[in-house]
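Lab manual, section 2.4: Encoding a predicted structure.

Procedure: take the sequence of the chain (286 residues), apply the prediction step described in section 2.3, and record the output as structure tokens. A sample record is shown.
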Amino acid sequence: MTQPTDVRGEHLRTALSLAASGVPVLPLRAGKAPFGNCRRCADNACGGRPNMKTAGPCACSGPCHAWAAATTDPDVISSGPWRRAWLTASAVAYHPGGAGLTVVDLDNADAIAWAREHLPVTQTVPTTRGEHWLYLGRMQSANGVRPGVDIKSTMAYARWLGFGAGAMGYLPDSVRALAVSKPAPARPTPQALAVPTPARRGECRHRTPVFLERGIAMAEQCITDATSGVHNAVYRTFLAVLSTHGRCGCLTEDHITRLFTAAQTKGETARHCTEAWTNARTRLGL
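Recorded output:
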């Protein structure tokens, strides 16, 4: 169901106001999810955007690529493709890392009580079920660092819910430590890839940290952001990773384990992860 005209207009006005203050924004559709890729960008066939975890600019003018589409350019935000997205948008989101911020997402009363006891006071924004604690400084995003606690900064988006209350503090080491000490779920033993490296001159481009590492991290984020149809989302993500990196011998067991771990964190079993990976390889003829 589309939003009333006044609400749609308010979303656009809010987005333009945030962008003017240096906060990269993007529209969210129903279910607090970003708009999906267009046909041209499906499975990241376009090669990504400059600020994504993949190489190569994307010429798509729409709000593709989830958090990586976030922008402060008012001409883009008000352009035709983005205006059409605002027509059905349910909320405004922003890229905290792009604004130099970190959001500690506290999902329930127990998480809030823990934060009040262990984290420095900072700007606090009420959410539907809990609170967002905002700090100045960016870091790696991580979900499930504690029960009901997620960290949203680089390569993530957060819903804009207003300015909240209190003075914003600097990102403390106690928050950074949460991502480092995040408890890892049981990891399956991934199938080692033994794929032929195509004959080419020079080093494979995927071996560069910018291309391969960012590609794996974005795949983890895609799985983490899945709100429904997790099994299909895992399969599609595995397929996208293998279509880009599966033929050059770049993927290691560590990369596969990271993808399997992200899937298991969303509730997938080790067997389903292995089946999805095998099916994706079979479809690509690997």
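Check your result against the sample. Strands lie at 25-29, 33-34, 91-94, 101-106, 123-126, 131-136, 142-146, 149-152, 158-159, 169-170.
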